[in-house]
Amino acid sequence: PVEEIQTQQHFDAQKFREQAENARYSFKAAVADSVNDNTQIRQETRDGLKLRGLYSYSDGYFRRTVHYVADEHGYRVVKEENEPIGTGPRINPTGKVDVSTHVAGSSLEYTIKGENLPPSKH
Protein backbone atom coordinates (compact mmCIF):
# COMPACT_ATOMS: atom_id res chain seq x y z
CA PRO A 1 0.00 0.00 0.00
CA VAL A 2 2.82 2.52 0.71
CA GLU A 3 4.24 1.94 -2.77
CA GLU A 4 0.78 2.42 -4.29
CA ILE A 5 0.36 5.73 -2.47
CA GLN A 6 3.79 6.94 -3.62
CA THR A 7 3.03 5.89 -7.20
CA GLN A 8 -0.33 7.73 -7.08
CA GLN A 9 1.32 10.84 -5.60
CA HIS A 10 3.96 10.79 -8.36
CA PHE A 11 1.26 10.36 -11.01
CA ASP A 12 -0.79 13.23 -9.50
CA ALA A 13 2.25 15.53 -9.38
CA GLN A 14 3.15 14.69 -12.96
CA LYS A 15 -0.43 15.27 -14.13
CA PHE A 16 -0.60 18.59 -12.27
CA ARG A 17 2.70 19.70 -13.83
CA GLU A 18 1.48 18.82 -17.35
CA GLN A 19 -1.75 20.75 -16.80
CA ALA A 20 0.17 23.76 -15.50
CA GLU A 21 2.57 23.71 -18.46
CA ASN A 22 -0.38 23.82 -20.87
CA ALA A 23 -2.46 26.46 -19.06
CA ARG A 24 -3.17 29.60 -21.08
CA TYR A 25 -5.49 32.45 -20.19
CA SER A 26 -5.83 36.19 -20.04
CA PHE A 27 -8.34 38.33 -18.15
CA LYS A 28 -9.00 41.84 -16.96
CA ALA A 29 -11.58 43.14 -14.51
CA ALA A 30 -12.15 46.75 -13.51
CA VAL A 31 -14.47 48.74 -11.27
CA ALA A 32 -14.55 52.55 -11.45
CA ASP A 33 -16.74 53.70 -8.57
CA SER A 34 -17.40 57.45 -8.47
CA VAL A 35 -20.08 56.92 -5.78
CA ASN A 36 -17.53 55.78 -3.17
CA ASP A 37 -14.47 57.28 -4.92
CA ASN A 38 -12.48 54.13 -5.52
CA THR A 39 -11.19 52.03 -8.39
CA GLN A 40 -10.06 48.44 -8.64
CA ILE A 41 -8.27 46.78 -11.53
CA ARG A 42 -6.95 43.26 -11.89
CA GLN A 43 -5.40 41.78 -14.99
CA GLU A 44 -3.40 38.65 -15.58
CA THR A 45 -1.96 36.63 -18.45
CA ARG A 46 -0.70 33.09 -18.16
CA ASP A 47 1.31 31.15 -20.70
CA GLY A 48 2.20 27.76 -19.29
CA LEU A 49 4.33 28.19 -16.19
CA LYS A 50 4.78 31.94 -16.74
CA LEU A 51 2.27 34.33 -15.29
CA ARG A 52 2.30 38.13 -15.44
CA GLY A 53 -0.24 40.49 -13.97
CA LEU A 54 -1.13 43.54 -11.96
CA TYR A 55 -3.64 44.77 -9.47
CA SER A 56 -4.45 48.37 -8.74
CA TYR A 57 -6.78 50.21 -6.40
CA SER A 58 -7.47 53.71 -5.19
CA ASP A 59 -9.20 54.80 -2.01
CA GLY A 60 -9.29 58.59 -2.23
CA TYR A 61 -5.90 58.85 -0.55
CA PHE A 62 -3.61 56.79 -2.78
CA ARG A 63 -3.60 54.84 -6.01
CA ARG A 64 -1.53 51.72 -5.57
CA THR A 65 -0.51 49.47 -8.45
CA VAL A 66 1.47 46.25 -8.08
CA HIS A 67 2.96 44.44 -11.08
CA TYR A 68 3.92 40.81 -10.49
CA VAL A 69 5.21 37.69 -12.16
CA ALA A 70 5.03 34.06 -11.13
CA ASP A 71 7.02 31.24 -12.66
CA GLU A 72 9.27 28.35 -11.67
CA HIS A 73 11.05 30.78 -9.29
CA GLY A 74 7.83 31.66 -7.42
CA TYR A 75 5.75 34.82 -7.08
CA ARG A 76 7.58 38.14 -7.28
CA VAL A 77 6.56 41.78 -7.25
CA VAL A 78 8.50 43.45 -10.08
CA LYS A 79 7.18 47.00 -9.70
CA GLU A 80 5.11 48.95 -7.18
CA GLU A 81 3.59 52.36 -7.69
CA ASN A 82 2.04 54.44 -4.89
CA GLU A 83 0.63 57.78 -5.97
CA PRO A 84 -1.01 60.26 -3.57
CA ILE A 85 -4.33 61.34 -5.10
CA GLY A 86 -6.23 63.23 -2.40
CA THR A 87 -7.22 63.74 1.20
CA GLY A 88 -9.76 60.93 1.31
CA PRO A 89 -12.72 59.53 -0.55
CA ARG A 90 -15.28 61.97 -1.90
CA ILE A 91 -18.64 60.30 -1.60
CA ASN A 92 -21.01 61.15 -4.47
CA PRO A 93 -24.46 59.53 -4.10
CA THR A 94 -25.36 60.62 -7.66
CA GLY A 95 -22.21 59.10 -9.18
CA LYS A 96 -22.00 55.82 -11.03
CA VAL A 97 -20.13 52.54 -10.89
CA ASP A 98 -18.68 51.18 -14.14
CA VAL A 99 -17.86 47.46 -14.08
CA SER A 100 -16.06 45.58 -16.84
CA THR A 101 -14.60 42.13 -17.34
CA HIS A 102 -12.74 40.68 -20.29
CA VAL A 103 -12.08 36.93 -20.29
CA ALA A 104 -11.17 34.61 -23.16
CA GLY A 105 -12.23 37.06 -25.85
CA SER A 106 -15.58 37.84 -24.20
CA SER A 107 -16.46 41.11 -22.54
CA LEU A 108 -19.12 42.19 -20.10
CA GLU A 109 -19.63 45.82 -19.16
CA TYR A 110 -22.35 47.51 -17.17
CA THR A 111 -23.03 50.65 -15.16
CA ILE A 112 -24.90 51.13 -11.91
CA LYS A 113 -26.15 54.60 -11.04
CA GLY A 114 -25.69 55.79 -7.47
CA GLU A 115 -29.39 56.56 -7.17
CA ASN A 116 -30.11 52.84 -7.69
CA LEU A 117 -27.83 51.72 -4.83
CA PRO A 118 -28.99 51.26 -1.24
CA PRO A 119 -28.20 54.23 1.04
CA SER A 120 -24.62 54.35 2.31
CA LYS A 121 -23.88 53.74 6.00
CA HIS A 122 -21.07 56.35 6.06
Notable characteristics:
alpha+beta, 1 helix, 122 residues, seven-stranded antiparallel β-sheet
Layout of strands and helices, then pairs:
Blueprint lengths: L1 H21 L1 E10 L4 E10 L2 E9 L3 E10 L2 E11 L11 E8 L2 E8 L9
Antiparallel strand pairs: 1-2, 1-6, 2-3, 3-4, 4-5, 6-7
Q: What would you say this structure looks like, in words?
A:
With 122 residues, this protein is an alpha+beta fold. The protein has one domain. It has one helix and seven strands. The protein has one helix spanning 2-22; strands spanning 24-33, 38-47, 50-58, 62-71, 74-84, 96-103, 106-113. The chain has a seven-stranded antiparallel sheet with strand order 5-4-3-2-1-6-7, with no helix packed on it. InterPro entries: Insect_cuticle (IPR000618).
- In terms of quaternary structure, the protein is single chain
Kindly give the count of domains.
Answer: 1
Shape: elongated
Q: How many E-type strands?
A: 7
Strand portion: over 45%
Largest sheet: 7 strands, antiparallel
Poorly predicted runs: none
- Taking the alpha carbons of the first and last residues, their distance comes to 60 Å
The run of helices and strands is: HEEEEEEE
Radius of gyration: 21 Å
